[in-house]
Amino acid sequence: MTYLNSSYFFDYNDTTIDVLLKKSLTNDLSSKEKAIRLYTLVRDGWKYDPYSINLSKENYRSSTIVQKSTGNCVEKSILLISLLRGAGIPARLHLGKVKNHIAVERLTEKFGSNELTPHGMVNALLDDKWLKMSPAFNKSLCEKFNVEPLEFDGNNSSYLQQYNNSGSLFMEYTDDYGYFEDVPLDFMKKNIEEHYPHIFKTKKGKTEFKL
Fold first, then answer.
1. Are the C-beta atoms of residues 93 and 73 closer than 8 Å to each other?
2. Angle CA(82)–CA(45)–CA(142) in degrees, nearest 5?
3. 91-139 residue pLDDT tens
4. Which stretches are annotated as coiled coil (predicted)?
5. Rounded distance, CA 8 to CA 16, Å?
6. Which run of H or E residues covers position 80?
7. Domain spans of the chain?
8. What letter would DSSP give residue 59?
9. How far apart are CA 187 and CA 160, in angstroms?
10. Which CATH number describes the domain made up of 2-209?
């Protein structure tokens, strides 16, 4: 199946990913149990950092991401997809646009907007059903902002924290770009440049990323 393939980005055959899989999973686990364990591992094992963006191709390899301690939503989704595929669970990248409503001051200062795009999440095939999951927000970050951490039970989609624990609007999806077999880096670069033109500069007729 296509969504089980390794690729330049989903390089689960790399030693770093293989070691993590062997360390995290046992053969007696069901596919659902494996998916739950890997989801929680990525959610909490890498702190969410939306402010660090590197558009180099190398940066979006799961073998690169796994060696860091933080990651943005797309990077963490790529890592989870690679681990899921390495565990024999079909998975794909799903991109969209979200609007944050809590703790948006730094986002607005950095990006000129409280919208984040492209926002990454994961689709995984379990019991012949594609389920959505978002490993972006680690548990400690959720506790800091009084938001219930997203749990994944292997039976239902879990990808949107719409409200915080006080009932205030936290996040909403404002656009859906669909799912992708591999990482659509050219699409992502174009999307970022269109939404945040001020974080690019033109030098000798060439557009360069300057964050």
1. no
2. 115
3. 999 999 998 876 677 778 878 888 889 999 999 999 999 999 999 999 9
4. none
5. 14
6. helix 73-86
7. 2-209
8. G
9. 23
10. 3.10.620
Crossing angle for the helix pair 73-86 and 31-45, to the nearest 10 degrees:
150
In this structure, of 57-66, 123-132, 150-159, 192-201, the range with the lowest mean pLDDT score is 192-201
Q: What is the largest CA-CA distance in the chain?
A: 58
Q: What is the pTM of this model?
A: 0.92
Residue 204 pLDDT greater than 60, yes or no: no
Q: How far apart are CA 174 and CA 158, in angstroms?
A: 17
CB neighbours of residue 201 within 10 Å: 11
**CA separation, residue 13 to residues 45, 61, 87, 143 (Å):** 20, 12, 11, 35
List, for residues 18-51, the tens digit of each pLDDT value: 999 999 999 999 999 999 999 999 999 999 998 8
Give the residue carrying structure tokens 């933080």: 70
Determine contact, residues 158/134, Cβ cutoff 8 Å: yes
- Radius of gyration of the chain from Cα atoms? 17
From 69, 67, 63, select the one nearest 83 (Cα to Cα). 63
State how far Cα 186 lies from the chain centre. Answer: 17
Pairing between β-strand 115-126 and β-strand 200-203 as defined by DSSP bridges: unpaired
Answer whether 102's CB lies under 8 Å from 170's CB: yes
Local structure of residue 9 (DSSP, 8 states): S
- How far is the CA of 64 from the CAs of 15, 103, 116, 135, in angstroms? 11, 29, 23, 17
Please give the structure tokens belonging to residue 73.
């939503």
